[in-house]
Amino acid sequence: MKSLVKFVQIYKRIEQSPTRFSALVVVLLFGLFLEAYMHDFNLVYITLFFVFALAFTAGPMGILNIGQLEADYLKAGRFFVNREGKIPLKIHNHSQITSWSILACDTENSIAIEMLKGEDSHIISFPFTPKKRGIFQHENCYLESRYPLSTARLVKPIKSHYKGLAYPEPKGKSLQEFMHIEENHYGEEKEFDGLREYDGSQKLSHMHWPSVAKGELSVKVFSKETSSPKLAFDFYKAGKDDESRLSQLCLWVLTCEKLQLHFSVQMPHKTLISTKESTDVILKYLARY
Amino acid sequence: MSFLNILQDTRHPSLRLLDMAYIVVLAPLFLILKVPMMGFVFAVLILLYFKRTEASKLLISIIFILGFLAIFLSLYGAFSFRGLSRLKLFLELLVYVLIVVVSAQRLIKKINFYLLISPILFLALSLFFFHGIVMLTYVVFEIYFLLWMILAHRMQGMLIESFRSSMVMFMYSLPWVVLLFIFFPRISFEHASYGFKGEVEQRMGHDGTMYLDSKALLVPSERIVMEVGFEKNIPPSDKLYFRGSILYVDKKNHWERLPRYVKRRNKTFFAKKGKKTKYKVTLYPTQKRWLYMLEQPAKIIKNSHLDSDFISTVKEDIKEPIHYAATSNLSLKFRASLDKKTLHFSSAFNKEQNPQTFLAAQNIEKSFPKTKDRLAALLDFFKSKSLTYSLKPSALDTNHTSDSFLFDKQRGYCVHFASSFVTMSRMAGIPSRIVTGYKADRKNGLKDYLAVKESDAHAWAELYIGGHWVRVETTATAAHIEEDASLSSGQNQSKKEKYPLLEKVNLYLMYAKYQVETWILYYSNIRQKQLLEYAKNNPKFIFNFTLGILSLLILSFVIIAYFRKPKCHNEILCILEPLFIKLKKEGYHRGKKETLNQYLQRYSLENPENKNIIDINQCYEKISYAQDKSKETKQQLKMLIFQI
Asked: Which of A50, B32, B276, B415 is the most exposed place for a label (fewest CB within 10 A)?
């Protein structure tokens, strides 16, 4: 009785639609029925009843196959406009029985899961490319299966949705280019502090030529310069329009994060300083601008 | 690695699964293929084997041309507009066309919807051609196999897992099939008469002639001629006389029926009194028109003719197994009015032909004026001649058969006994005739089932005494029976059983086959009505039936539970499984991130009295981490779990 109640609960959550194979079963049943009835032919009767019983059994088996699966979104990485990101989905099989032939689908993609063992989980990732910055939702996802006989398409909608934030598309001039242009604005070059490997972002005047002559690309590091936040990005100078400015700032912020450089972003009503706010907070501000 | 493990890990592509399905569904259809079509299929198989890449358009065109040429040659001569209307020919054509189309598509090596459904179509078509217990078994196997292949296709070609799933599905559907088969309403159309015939089948039958010379039909074969299902128990052996034909005319070396020009008054006296025996007969092809019924039939068999001698015939020779229900009164004698013509023919004899017999018969006639006494005297006379029942008698003088048998050779079998007895009875003034048919033996029966074999063929005499025809078992007068002759003597009690166990097993198999044929292959609306009618009046039957269905359900669920249970692949975890079940029952569930060691320790801490758990844990650690995979350690682990 408990199992029956559970089955009814599962059944209510599953959407079913016939496939062309179900039409085949109907035609087959009709043909076999005519043949069996016209000639009172018991072999045909037996085949007819088997086809009917198997088609009938396929329903509950298919429902149990997909009904015990639960899907939940996992925390995803950063999303940028026009850049493909991944939305991870964890599918867990609450039954002890292996589930077969599952498709995890969203509006654009479908990912096949051949089998999912009982009491086991599987993580899949939906590719997702935001078209505009700001908050987005990944929804209308569902699990689909045609197991066992392909006569019905069983769909279990995933009720939860993924709410994410798409940052501006990081594009524009590189940080190195920005540095060359803004060279004069950098701090004083006093108190030689040593050498470090040239990574392309430093000024050419900082090149340590003796090292270059030895075959090592090194630049001079000044204690005064390293401790001063000299990278100041101005919103209005970053581009011609808001979107290009945000994209440019996003690129520079990400590069600074990669190079572990401190920076500040001068927005129209706020100054974002990397030492005070995390990159994610800064990016969020840009995304929501 | 075992074969099963290899199979477990192997994934079979859809085309291979499809090929496997084709092999199974085409196997029965191969029996109906004509040689040109077989040649075509063989050519396609060779192409499939050697050509691993997709076939070109030219090759496909050639295949089509060859295929349709093969169809033309296969059906050449059988074709006409009239012929096409014949169902079997039309279906044969359909099978051929389907084979050609499927071959072409298969050579393209691309699976489409039509290729996927073609095995099911082949299965449906094969049902038209075959009918029998073998086909029944094969059809059930085919259905299961196709289901297996469909699931394997859905489950990425994993044969072992799909086998388990298909078994679950099959067992779920089996009780439905049984219930539907029994209760689904039927209508009373005739059973289909088409089906694969194979070679012309012929069992020994009686045709209204009985030879006494070397042409005498003596078939000591064990082939089954008839299978009889009695409503109740099988009657005693001395009442199992199945009437075939009646012979009146002595033609020296053989006996014949009444001449065709004799028009008789067809008045049949059905027995109104006495106990009636109901039975169902499955008669195998005899290529003759005679049906067989016990003693005095009480009803006419549907679509047959019953004459005043209680001989039942059909219009055309029996070329396929037929089934009929019959009712008979098992009496030794039955009332009959003897018209002049029949009296003439049943009294006719030629005294010059058998003078010695005539002399002996005259003596009896003079000595015993009462007919009954005369019959006893005739039997005594036969007994006094010290006759020997032999299946290999020396040839009789066919000009004087009775004299030769009674006074010279004195060896013969049923035909010689019956012939001489009838001749002598007529000479003694008693109208008489020979009956040929089968004398069945209860030893060939089980419960209500009786098998009648060719070796049961028999001849006996019927004498007209006091307005009744009285059966006389003439071979009972034999003083001696030769060892190898007991089969056809009509004295079955002396039959020797060389391999009693084998014969018993054989009988049980025949009984099972008969029951399957009766209750499955030839289950009809009549049987369905009978069953329901019987159920109405028999609560015990309903109880037994319900019990049977419940047993089937339980059996199905046991099999389902076995195949649904996830298969344990790790040997140690398999050994530990009963322990996990026990701990779960006690409310100890293993945490998601809890190791087995932690789990068992948690249990032993809370249940210190159960010391075996600590030993089990140690044993498990030893096997899993100390690489101690000896049989002894595993055995020890099993023992510890068993003790718990």
From this structure: B276
